[in-house]
Amino acid sequence: MRKNLLVLVLLSHALLAHAADIETMNAQQIVIQFDDQPEAVTASTADEKQPATLLALAPAAAPQTAQMQDEELKSSLLKLTASPKLRSAIGLIYDEREQRPLYSKGADSVAPIASITKLMTAMVVLDAQLPMDEEIIISAQDADKHKITRSRMRPGTTATRGELLKLALMASENRAAAALARTYPGGTQAALAQMNFKARELGMTSTQFLDPTGLNSGNVSTAQDLVKMVRAAHGYELIQKYTTSTSHTLEQAGHRPMQFRNTNPLVRNASWEIGLSKTGYISEAGKCLVMEAKIAQHPVIIVLLDSWGKQTRVGDANRVKQWMENGYRRANY
After folding, report:
1. Which positions are catalytic?
2. Most CB contacts within 10 A, which of 101, 192, 247, 294?
3. N- to C-terminal Cα distance for the chain?
4. What is the pTM of this model?
């Protein structure tokens, strides 16, 4: 009796498994028809009611593209790879393609941003569509009243608005940035109002600007907000061009030419592919750096704030690059 019962149980399990296999095969056939011939699930299908349901489900169940799988694999490998040991107090590595952070350290902490401010100054000046070839004379009003820093651009120095924009972005020239704001329609206060308005427009809810140079420690933001600002600034061709220029010579009649260099040495490094760059420093902010760059053909935004040591922010950027290249190299082997 027990043997007969056991045989019946085994037979029933076998029949159920066989039926499930047939159903799976039918479903696979229909999905294959959907993938190869999107409109070709016809009345010849065994069950005419089933295809409509499967067609609705098939797109969600369809396999990911090779590119999507590759990106997910690379991101997973980066997570499994030991995080870069960054010395900056605040750091954020943002994947532009996947629109998410790959690495985050204090990214929501509000901190002074120093001359990174100049990216916003440049954006509002460009938004105003002011003539870039207009000559502007550096005034005593443009001198730094916060830190009493020195500048080679003495009162009376003449440059075009385009040159001032380049020097503010590339060499982080404070008097150039101050002059740009002073000659903005309505003056410096109008420029600051527009800078703060644009920050809100970009969703930078933890950001404020009190001066156009970044010398005021009240100019604060977060790494998360700065990603939004860098993404917006990258949309301006002149900002891309000027922030990645290696040098500029300012010619002055009756005076020796003045040579200015980019404050970020990485723009002169052939191993880097940089689309935008801006450094910053005041004692309250430490050394700061934001960049848009391609690493292993992968576009990222790097934000490094409150870094100390002569080359720490540059060292941190190189550590980020090595970390990403190692992770992507593993993904390809």
Report:
1. 115, 118, 172
2. 192
3. 60
4. 0.77
